[in-house]
Structure prediction request, 277 residues.
Amino acid sequence: MRLIILEDADIVADWAARFVLQRVTQFAPGPDKRFVLGLPTGGTPLGMYRKLIQFYKEGKISFKYVTTFNMDEYVGLPRDHPESYHYYMWNEFFKHVDIDPAQAHVLDGNAPDLVAECARFERLIQEAGGVHLFIGGIGPDGHIAFNEPGSSLVSRTRVKTLAYDTLEANKRFFGNDISKVPRQALTVGVGTVMDAKEVMILITGVHKALALAKAVEEGVNHMWTVSAFQQHPQTLFVCDEAATLELRVKTVKYFKVTITPVCLAVPEAERFDHPSD
Ligand SMILES: N[C@@H]1[C@@H](O)[C@H](O)[C@@H](COP(=O)(O)O)O[C@@H]1O
Prediction:
């Protein structure tokens, strides 16, 4: 596990986009060799998507041979509702790049059989050969995707009832009316994300500081599901200074002195190569 501490949310977005650019470029995808990317929604990754769109327009990256799997989707929200994750992904990212819509997978929260839909999603990931890079965000309660506190750390894609903290955190997208936030979601499991070859989790803002501290300084704990990634062989937590406020000085110094300068000091083309822990 590596913790990359950057100055602010804009720099985190830029760093994350460059990381994706580098991984996709290194992989050199083609018709018989697709790069498989796991994607999050929420406010945190928006800057990264904007930067990736810019890279695409500048001809630095193509998504033609990239297959994507999104982490989660609300249950029962119409696909064209402005807060559905389908709508978010299409408007914030997919429609701006050359991705094949048939290869951009988002769970269907309106499927007649939600259990079958979750099984189908797991099967599609398997058929794609697994995820090369899963990008995630977290809630202030340390959930990854919609794996709420208490979720099994070996869980697979399934229906989850949302925790009160999540409804509170997400009501800002529903006119600040908690009663309008869907009560359930489909989500990849912790185990689904753990199967990815590499994981990058973006954490910004002081409201995520406690979750980051629980994620990296305390033991693996199903009440802070993102902490499971301490046991993943290749996970990067990329955060801003504000998110470090609950960390020990010792932790911050260790990662700033020993990790970040190494990543930033090397030539751009060689950045982000890190051995697994
Ligand atoms: N299910 C999503 C998560 O996948 C996301 O990571 C989280 C954080 O969102 P934000 O980046 O807006 O804080 O929100 C929701 O709960």
